[in-house]
């Protein structure tokens, strides 16, 4: 088993535990999350998730770790999720062939992409978004480790985009329900 596969399976175990930690279990939340993480690794849930979704991004793994550590509110709120969707939907559309340009290829030679992340980091620092700045720093360190061949794979993945879609869709659904109850 190579390093990327081992990372993917362990990360998916933690992500599964983080999803269980979202359940309203009260005092048992931490124990249920630990049990779910262990179960995902031993019963084969994590390898199945790895097979379906591929290797998770370091960003998603860090958000899962923050959820397991009971960090509230999560850094992935409505506005960051909306921003991620605004970027990821056109990114995946063009990467899948909707245009002649393939932005995914930029991740293999990421000098321009790394230069573009400098002002992003500066804005995160200026606005005191320390959690996102730390996530970005760990992402870049993870890319430098050589486990990931493409910088985009470190920053986001389809499961993270799906999670952002659920967060945005949940807010819109709650607004729709609230407007009909009036």
Element order: H for helix, E for strand = HHHHHHHHH
Calculate the mean pLDDT score and round it.
92
Oligomer: single chain
Strand content: under 5%
The low-pLDDT segments are none
Topology, number of strands: 0
Q: Can you count the helices?
A: 9
CA radius of gyration is: 17 Å
> Helix/strand-derived class?
mainly alpha
Q: Specify the helix fraction band.
A: over 70%
Distance, first to last CA: 57 Å
Outline the structure in words.
This protein has 9 helices and no strands. With 182 residues, the protein is mostly helical. Helix 1 (3-21) runs parallel beside helix 4 and helix 5 (78-98) crosses helix 9 (158-181). The mean pLDDT is 92.
Brief digest:
The chain is mostly helical.
Tags for this model:
182 residues; mainly alpha; 74% helix; 0% strand
SSE arrangement:
Blueprint: H1 3-21, H2 29-43, H3 45-53, H4 58-68, H5 78-98, H6 111-126, H7 130-144, H8 151-155, H9 158-181
Helix pairs in contact: 1-2, 1-3, 1-4, 4-7, 5-9
């Amino acid at each position: 088993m190579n390093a990327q596969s081992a990372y993917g399976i362990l990360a998916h175990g933690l992500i599964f535990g983080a999803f269980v930690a979202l359940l309203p279990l009260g005092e048992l939340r931490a124990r249920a999350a630990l049990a779910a993480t262990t179960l995902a690794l031993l019963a084969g849930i994590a390898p199945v998730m790895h097979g379906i979704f591929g290797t998770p991004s370091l960003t998603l793994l860090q958000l899962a770790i923050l959820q397991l550590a009971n960090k509230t509110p999560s850094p992935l709120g409505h506005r960051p999720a909306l921003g991620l969707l605004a970027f990821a939907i056109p990114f995946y559309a063009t990467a899948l062939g909707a245009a002649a340009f393939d932005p995914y290829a930029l991740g293999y030679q990421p000098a321009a992409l790394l230069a573009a992340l400098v002002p992003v980091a500066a804005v995160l620092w200026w606005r005191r978004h320390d959690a996102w700045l730390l996530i970005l720093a760990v992402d870049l360190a993870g890319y430098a480790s050589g486990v990931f061949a493409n910088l985009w794979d470190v920053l986001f993945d389809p499961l993270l985009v799906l999670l952002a879609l659920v967060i945005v869709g949940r807010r819109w659904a709650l607004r729709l329900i609230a407007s009909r109850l009036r």
